[in-house]
Amino acid sequence: MPELTINQDTQSDHCQKALSSQFMQMLTGYWVSQSIMTVVKLNIADELKEQPQDIHMLSKSVGAHQDSLYRLMRMLSSIGIFKESESQVFGLTPLAELLCSDSPNSMKPMVMMLSGENYTAWEHLYEGVKSGESPFEKVFGMEIFQYFNTHPNAQQVFNNAMATLIRSDSTAIINAYNYDQHQTLVDVGGGNGMLLTTLLSHYPSLSGVLFDLPSVINGVTEKLRAEFEDRCHTVSGDFFESVPAGGDCYVLSRVIRGFDDERALKILNNIYKVMPVQGKLLLMEFILELGDDPSTATTKLMDINMMVFAPGGRDRTEEEHQTLLQKAGFELIKVISTENDICILEAIKK
User: Fold this and answer.
1) pTM (predicted TM-score)
2) Are 281 and 271 in contact, with CB atoms under 8 Å apart?
3) Are strands 207-212 and 184-188 parallel, antiparallel or unpaired?
4) From CA 226, how far away is CA 234, in angstroms rounded?
5) 171, pLDDT greater than 50
């Protein structure tokens, strides 16, 4: 019996150590994110793109303190972001290639966004939870979209990051829905046209309208203008005031999650006004699942980011989306899952 008791105590001790280790990984997660943000700002991955470099050469190339950079690189190598092939010689791994500026799957724009105003706003999550006010607005004295009006560089960083997200969504969005049934698709709040460009590329009979703020439309991708000039045009405006008429299908991709119900409803109402009867609305959004299944954690984290970053922003359950659509006069037909976390909510104008 004493031996059994010792084994149970040992097992319990191991369990507690494992829990403590897991908790510390969660607690210090920002150490890793800040380390990644630092090497991105130093353009380390771009410097190592051609071949591995020793730390002396690398620190000179990026203008960093040699010992400090070495300590940072060896830590990131231990978690797979770089590789230390020889003593103090570092090269890229598949994860590090995502930090290269010209990688087709580059996550660098997302890193740049998360290391700026977004990171600063997250520092004030406590105050936001206490008061219910937007942490971003508390820090910067205005809502994010007002902030972009006076900080064009920040808006460009944000637009680039959103294009990265749309790029990762595009294949899933295309594979999950047949757009051939539509003639003219209006992408409301479509950013730089990444999603619309992809759809037009895959559906030669489809025409498109890209609609967003003037400051966004002015920076629309050249590919959209050059390749689809005869099938697509751009319109600038404010979707809280009106949206372009003429489409039989309207798309909102990651748009209404950025606003509270009142403002989201205003956007939906403006779309409803110009749509034909039986016209389709496609919301491309995350669907919150209730319960504590670990697979739902990412979406719930994204919801907290909306709370921190956007004016009343929130992700919604299927029922909350349905209620919002019904208030605007739409009928939710179905919710289509994709190979990504994003879902397509197909609604029709009654």
Assistant:
1) 0.87
2) yes
3) parallel
4) 13
5) yes
